[in-house]
Structures are given as C-alpha cells and as structure tokens.
Amino acid sequence: MKRQQQVFEENMTTEEFDEEKFREEKAALEQNEELSIEKKKGKNITINDLPGIGPATAEKLTAVGFGTVMAIAVATPGEIVEATGISEAGARKIINAARDNLDMGFESGDQVMRKRERVLKISTGHKGFDAMMAGGFETGAITEVYAEFGAGKTQIGHMLAVNALSVEGEENPAVFYIDTENTFRPERIKQLATAKGMDVDAVLKKIKVGRAYNSDHQMLLVDKIEEMITQQNLNVKLIVVDSLTAHFRAEFVGRGTLADRQQKINKHMHALLKLADMYNICVYVTNQVMSKPDQFFGDPTQAIGGHIVGHASTFRIYLRKGKKGSRVAKLVDSPNLPEAEVAFYVTEGGLQDV
C-alpha cells in the first residue's frame, strides 16, 4: 500500500498537479491501509504482517527469539534495536503495532477467568500432594521447590517429566530439562515410565535435556527453548530447571557481586515466566538453601536467591526430610491456595503415602 502511494506521488508532474485530487487520492490510500490493518486485528498474523518488518528483519528477529507477534509485543525497544539494528523510533513502531494487533490492554475479570480455563494440572502421582496443589502443578506458572540435598527435589522433577507426557492424544508433546548439576538420570525416567506402563523409548525421546555449564549457558538454553517451540511446533508441557541457582551461586562470590547476581537471576526468572505465560507451560525449578546461624528459633533453612526468586515464583514449596525416610512438602506461598503440608515416601515407582 505504501509503495502504491509512493508511485502515485512520483507520477504526479508539475504540469498536471491537482492539489485537491492529490489529497483525495492520498486519503483513499491511507484509508485502505488502515482498513487492511483493521482486518488483520484479532487474526493469527505473523511478524511479517507488522509495518517496518521485511524478510531480512524478520529473519534477524526470529534468530534471536522474537519470531512471534507476542514476543515482539512484550519486548523492549532496546532488545529490538539490538536484534535488528534499526532505529529506536522504528523499534517502538513495530512494538506498538504488535500490541495493537494483540489488544494488550485491560480486560474484565470474567475474561481472565475464561483464560484460566486453559490452565492444565500436571499430577505428581500422589493424591495428597495433588490435593495440596489443587490438582497438581499448574501450567502458565513457575513452581519453586527448595530444600537441602537429598530431600527429593530432583525426584519430583523426574516424576513430573514422565507424568507430563502420560496424557494420551496430545500432538507432538515435549518436556525440556535444564540440568545444571548433572542430576538428570534416564534410568530413573525408565523406572517411572515402566511403573506407569508407558513406552520407555518414546518417553525418553520426548524429553529434551540441556546440560548447562555456567549461568550464561543456562540462560541461553531458555532462549533456545522458545526457538525450538516455534521452529519445530512442539507442544511443550513442562520445563524443569534443576537447579536454578547453582551456577549463579558459584560464579558470584562475595557481597560485592550480590547486586549483579540478583539482577541476572531476575532476568532469568522473567524469561522463564514469559515462556510459561506465552505457551501455557508448567515451569518447575529447584533451588538450593542456606542455613542462618543467627536464627535461634524455628527452622534456619532459607532459600537462595532472596526476594528476587521468591517474588518471581508463583508457587513455593519447602521440602524437608521426615521420619523413617519419608519426605514432607509444605506449600509456603501461593496466590490462591492456603498453606498446607503433606508427607510421602519416594519409591521406585513414584510417590507413596506414609
């Protein structure tokens, strides 16, 4: 449409120039352009439909994880400038167009309620645990489990991976497992899948494991997930990060680096939350703990990451060792569920009642 207007203006010579006719023709072209944009609203448009994005720019955006209209709509101008090299004004125009097409304004409570209907629950396989979580671990949210070593954080991650793939009739399902501590064990997946009567080889093929060797690699793997979702059309049910803070804790030593560490963790958590919300994915993260020696009463165990991790997590569960080899899970933070706890045993086939 813009090209038609440009050709029209170039073809108008000085001798035949009619100002009134020129204004009418230009107004008609602008109106047609506005109508074409209005027709696209509410439909499944692509980034190529946005003004200012050509094939080369679209390729650059897709390469760095901005391959959808939603991804561009929630991006900052600086991110778009860095990805494409266009001006900040051009980046703002692209972002505003994406937001206009997605109608990213306020919505009523009943609309939010209807959106909540697409939330799925991934079962732990334990009735008491699922009841505490109102049916299981939610998609579209981050659930953090923090505990000392050997409490069962990784076991729950393996169980969720298998259970997320146990739903029949799903097209192209997948689970992503970001392993930062070399804790992923396909042998454990085999035990759990066999106990549920599932095809072990099929389950293992659907779990994509990424071994993160430092915090930058860990964050890069999260970006890679979105790229694989869009390029391979994967139906991702679950993302496991085990553990969330291990590399950050090892790389940022001393109080002088605390601010940088927290800022980086914050960026990482928001990238995970964005994936959870955009693609309706359950994000399960495990977290390490530390002991507060100055606390004389109560449990001195405290999660790493402070308020940054606490605020970014939708649900927080504290896991501890119980009596006679049992484990106790306590829901300590939730936007809609009361505090509760449940005891269980970790067995070869999954979780079992105490």
Quick structural overview:
This protein has 354 residues and is of the alpha/beta class. The protein has helices at 2-11, 19-40, 55-63, 69-73, 77-84, 88-102, 109-116, 127-132, 153-164, 186-195, 200-206, 215-232, 246-251, 258-279, 306-312, and strands spanning 121-122, 137-138, 141-146, 173-179, 207-211, 235-242, 282-287, 289-291, 301-303, 315-321, 327-333, 340-347, 350-353. It is 47% helix and 19% strand.
Query: What is the count of helical runs?
Result: 15
> What is the total tally of β strands?
13
Q: Uncertain spans, ≥5 residues at pLDDT below 50?
A: 12-17, 32-42
CATH fold-type name of the largest domain: Rossmann fold
Q: What characteristic shape results from the CA principal axes?
A: globular
Strand content: 15-25%
Structural commentary:
The protein is α/β, with parallel strands linked by helices. It has two domains: 2-102, 5' to 3' exonuclease, C-terminal subdomain (DNA polymerase, domain 1, Orthogonal Bundle); 114-353, Rossmann fold (3-Layer(aba) Sandwich), CATH 3.40.50. It is 47% helix and 19% strand. The chain has helices at residues 2-11, 19-40, 55-63, 69-73, 77-84, 88-102, 109-116, 127-132, 153-164, 186-195, 200-206, 215-232, 246-251, 258-279, 306-312; strands at residues 121-122, 137-138, 141-146, 173-179, 207-211, 235-242, 282-287, 289-291, 301-303, 315-321, 327-333, 340-347, 350-353. The strands form three sheets. Strands 5-4-6-7-3-10-11-12-13 form a nine-stranded mixed beta sheet, sandwiched between helices. Strands 1-2 form a two-stranded antiparallel ribbon. A hairpin with a 5-residue loop joins β10 and β11. Residues 12-17 and 32-42 have low confidence and may be disordered.
